[in-house]
Amino acid sequence: MFTGIIRELGRVAALDGSAGGLRLTVEAPATAALTAEGDSVSLDGVCLTAVAVDGGRISFDAVPETLQRTTLARLSADDHVNVEPALRAGDPLGGHYVQGHVDAVGTIRAVETEGEGARVWVDGPAEVLAYCVEKGSVTVDGVSLTVAALDDAGFAVALVPHTLEVTTLGALEPGDAVNLEADVLAKYVERLVRR
């Protein structure tokens, strides 16, 4: 379980493998210092298991299912990724409940400057948009955000300067692919109402 509050901007140190499986090594010293083999860590909103921790680097294995459903297969060496260690008992819940189970890959439609921040429009599939409500929560590349507006093709989020500075979202451009996770609470409510 995660909160969508990014703790560190990591750097892809190495990629080894292909679409059949990928060993991904990320340089993230602050997170590595708190991580043991077998721990869960979110990279760009994808929950992965640490398979090795060496100094300030953490290695993960991504299987074909993960590579097909997320943006991880598009990463290159030296790319930056949003890093969040799993929530521990007693940690503050500053964002919202995030599982690290990506629902779909969305596409950045537009990035508009708004004062010191930015308004970003993200297009996504109907199965994600069904759970989006204005002022509700959504996760984009692992970052907990509030839906500012909706239309038939996507949603907008308003990014504050801090988010633009300490996450990968500050470098987004139209056409970029991003990992999307709808609010899990909305999914449970829908399931209960259907019964």
Summarize the structure.
This protein has 195 residues and is α+β, with helices and mostly antiparallel strands. Helix content is 16%, strand content 44%.
General form: globular
For the largest sheet, list the strands in their spatial order. Answer: 1-2-5-4-3-6
Largest sheet: 6 strands, antiparallel, barrel
Going by helix content, strand content and strand pairing, the class is alpha+beta
Oligomer: single chain
Descriptive overview:
With 195 residues, the protein is of the alpha+beta class. It is built from five helices and twelve strands. The protein has helices at 29-32, 64-69, 126-129, 161-166, 184-194, and strands at residues 8-18, 21-27, 40-43, 46-54, 57-62, 80-85, 104-114, 117-123, 137-140, 143-150, 154-159, 177-182. A hairpin with a 3-residue loop joins strand 10 (143-150) and strand 11 (154-159). The two termini are 26 Å apart.
